[in-house]
């Protein structure tokens, strides 16, 4: 779970406050159970990192730092899509807790959680269509397909010890980086920025998203339940093999036997976590995240210098500091 010092977003804090209010209004469904589910999601208090990035890209691509109402709406749509994906994720992973509180399907039931996720995806599509910007619609709607693709790929590769780092990066793109990349590009499109600028910000978002996912996966191994808001080693339990483990397998092939029996013995998970911590796996995963951070910074290096660009650069580096 990401804790971001508030002052990093001070220039858009007012916009983020408006966003919170609007999100509550936007998910006001006719059916009380769906509304309760949606409320439950938004009251869990995510860090709003994705909409913050959209607003910063908006400022960085407008000559006077002005943010259009369409930029604000895109930021809201991005957060709704992200939240919808988390609800479905939790159902698929049978996750009981997220951000330290019970997940939707645990509070209500699986059926309601699936419907709540569908409802949020549908709401986001409706608001997206109402932006009346076909290019943005095409760019963002691709993300919803990518989420589904990522889920299916993850489901098919559970406990698959032959997974390569390339497979892992591709899966991470579908599950995390696609949304950040597309919403950065969408914000630049709304600003009527050049194709080159749109693509630069797409690459910024893509590499930032990949680094973000890799760091998340490291934290899943090395953090406590308290700081994660969910049990450590959740990925392993679900058969989701991530960068630290894939790198460790090269060094400690004995882990293969734990994976092949799906960590069924009581101590399998703890032993595996211990082995990963004693290996080069964490460091190699950090190095991989660092490469993507560098790529994200390189992507926007030639964009005009302004406060918003500085904040986006700071944010890139901040992601790595989550490990300290």
From TrEMBL:
It comes from the Eukaryota. Pfam families: polyprenyl_synt. One of its GO terms (molecular function) is metal ion binding. Keywords: Isoprene biosynthesis, Magnesium, Metal-binding, Plastid, Transferase. The keyword Nucleotide-binding does not apply. GO terms for biological process: isoprenoid biosynthetic process; quinone biosynthetic process. Belongs to the FPP/GGPP synthase family. InterPro entries: Isoprenoid_synthase_dom_sf, Polyprenyl_synt, Polyprenyl_synt_CS. Coiled coil: none annotated. Gene3D superfamilies: Farnesyl Diphosphate Synthase. PROSITE patterns: POLYPRENYL_SYNTHASE_1, POLYPRENYL_SYNTHASE_2. The keyword Nucleus does not apply. Its cofactor is Mg(2+). This is Prenyl transferase.
